[in-house]
Amino acid sequence: WKGILVGGTATACAAGAMALATMVPLNLATAASGTVAVGYTDEASVEAAALRTKLSATVQGALPKTAENHATRGCIDDTEVAKFTMRDFCVIGDPEGKKTIVLMGDSHAWQWNDAFHDLGKKLGARVVTMAKGGCSPQEYRIINDELHREYTECDSWRDSVFKELGDLKPDVIVVADRTRREATRAGAEATFKVLKSTGAELVYLTDTPQPGQNVPDCLATHVDDISSCNRKQYEALEYTDFRTMEREVAEKYGASIIDTVPAFCTKDVCPSVIGDQVVYFDSSHITSSYSKTLEPFLEPTLEEALAG
User: Model-level pTM greater than 0.90?
Assistant: First the structure.
């Protein structure tokens, strides 16, 4: 896990989880009758979440383990890995599926792995996850804060992924990554040109909003006023110009766009809890359980892309 959750969020979450365990009753059920707690259902559920002020008993019960509520399916390479290697656990969904979906990107692609595993099973497609912490699939220069230098491992890893795609010949390639201020149009163009040349249908999954703080820690200390843990939409959608540029390039190369914002934000605010699901397990990445409630949100675009 070294280097995957940049900025020490994993450590912070672990510490937060221990603190939460002393603050929140552990005997509260995480969902009624053992069923999965409801998260996103439609945009109205996001609107309702933005108006909520108190944390429900269901969420309080689940909160101590929220730091562990991250993707467990698929693979993600850490900082030092300089070459992607296909491994059995990188293949999720339906391993015997006749069609192949590739989910490619950094940890903001990895965060979707569990949802894509379930979608792959439902759609009869195998899903190959190709993710590396802090490494954009787009070709631009990144300075890694952990290494204190240019992230050359990212460049070589990306090149190895492009080669693997040529051998794999996927039916659909889904691109997802964290929007960064280092992004360039030339870098985005270079990557989407390579991806287009594979002959796969392309899907661009826009970046999820940034909560701006460790969400489980905030909720634990604001049980009666969780609005303090929400973030204004204009703040959560950081680097708006770069987000727009990346989307424009993806569209230029024929990618279908899944705009994630309606599943996370109203026009004004991005709630930290939607339905009975905490949206983020740290200060950046979405929880596995919330991602799974977005399967119906993702499915139509992926189904259409698989149909080709």
Answer: no
Cα–Cα dist 146/135, whole Å: 13
Q: Specify the 3-state DSSP secondary structure of 296.
A: helix
Q: What is the distance between the alpha carbons of residues 19 and 11, in angstroms, rounded to a whole number?
A: 13
Would you say residue 224 has pLDDT above 70? Answer: yes
Q: Would you say 90 and 130 are in contact if contact means Cβ atoms under 8 Å apart?
A: yes
**% pLDDT > 90, the chain:** 86
pLDDT digits (tens, 9 = 90+) for 96-113: 999 999 999 999 999 999
Q: Measure the CA–CA gap between 203 and 196, rounded to whole angstroms.
A: 11
Q: Is 166 exposed, middle or buried (0-12, 13-18, 19+ CB in 10 A)?
A: exposed
CA distances, 61 to each of 82, 128, 230, 259, 285 (Å): 41, 34, 20, 31, 20
